[in-house]
């Protein structure tokens, strides 16, 4: 399966990532990536940008080097009710919102608590996707999370960096992919790049998609049109005027 959209990347603004938006776009263009989302970490992450950074993302061109840039965030889930580290009025201005559990922002607890956090995040109208839900540090009830994504018309991410930085996640990621397929839930693939050279790198993700024989129609990253359609769907969901 050819993936031309990357929905999860970090720029130098994240504090522990090392390339500018321009460098990311250039590298994406060189590697045949047609669209990527800039999803720097939300303010609760150490060294991450503050709220106003996200309010000003509109200055980033919609397209650079022929690559469409989606303005987003990887917001942090900061309690087990699924609360995020950004107020709704900021989330409303973005094109794409990822919600994630990170152990530097919230202490791992029970499977039930992790599951509830992801389910409640998926119920939040501003959230489009939960990232790296296969992280074994935050083990969840996979079926329940997939069902919540389905009920709320949301996405599940298959994260390429997980296989490197989140030890033991492979089995969980495969299970997530399999259950998404079984339940007809759409997935997005994120490189989780923290440097330009990793934008659009999906080696491990592709293996998982193959393993479960994922139908192409459930993978939004195979065409920019599919992704634009989803972004439009988001605007309708939020009642935001179409630009
Ligand atoms: Zn990061
Ligand atoms: Zn993350």
From TrEMBL:
Zn(2+) 3 binds at residues 74, 102, 132. Binds 3 Zn(2+) ions per subunit. It comes from the Bacteria. GO terms for molecular function: phosphatase activity; zinc ion binding. Residues 5-79 form the Polymerase/histidinol phosphatase N-terminal domain. Zn(2+) 1 binds at residues 8, 10, 74, 192. The keyword Ubl conjugation does not apply. SUPFAM superfamilies: PHP domain-like (SSF89550). Keywords: Hydrolase, Metal-binding, Zinc. NCBIfam families: PRK09248.1. Belongs to the PHP family. PANTHER family: PHOSPHATASE YCDX-RELATED. This is Phosphatase.
């Amino acid at each position: 399966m050819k993936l031309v959209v990357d929905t999860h990347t970090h720029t130098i603004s994240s504090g522990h990532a090392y390339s500018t938006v321009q460098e990311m776009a250039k590298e994406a263009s060189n590697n045949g990536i047609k669209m990527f989302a800039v999803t720097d970490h939300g303010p609760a992450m150490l060294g991450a940008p503050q709220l106003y950074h996200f309010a000003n993302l509109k200055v980033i061109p919609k397209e650079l080097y022929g690559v469409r840039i989606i303005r987003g965030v990887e917001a942090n889930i900061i309690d087990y009710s699924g609360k995020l580290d950004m107020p709704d009025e900021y989330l409303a201005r973005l094109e794409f919102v990822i919600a994630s559990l990170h152990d530097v922002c919230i202490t791992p607890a029970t499977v039930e608590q992790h599951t509830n956090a992801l389910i409640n995040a998926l119920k939040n109208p501003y959230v489009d996707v939960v990232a790296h839900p296969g992280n074994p540090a935050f083990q969840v009830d996979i079926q329940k999370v997939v069902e919540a994504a389905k009920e709320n018309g949301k996405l599940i991410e298959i994260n390429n960096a997980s296989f490197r930085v989140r030890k033991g996640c492979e089995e969980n990621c495969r299970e997530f992919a399999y259950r998404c397929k079984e339940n007809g839930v759409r997935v997005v693939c994120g490189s989780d790049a923290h440097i330009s050279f990793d934008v659009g790198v999906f080696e491990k993700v592709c293996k998982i998609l193959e393993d479960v024989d994922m139908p192409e129609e459930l993978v939004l990253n195979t065409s920019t049109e599919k992704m634009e359609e989803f972004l439009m769907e988001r605007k309708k969901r939020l009642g935001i005027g179409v630009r």
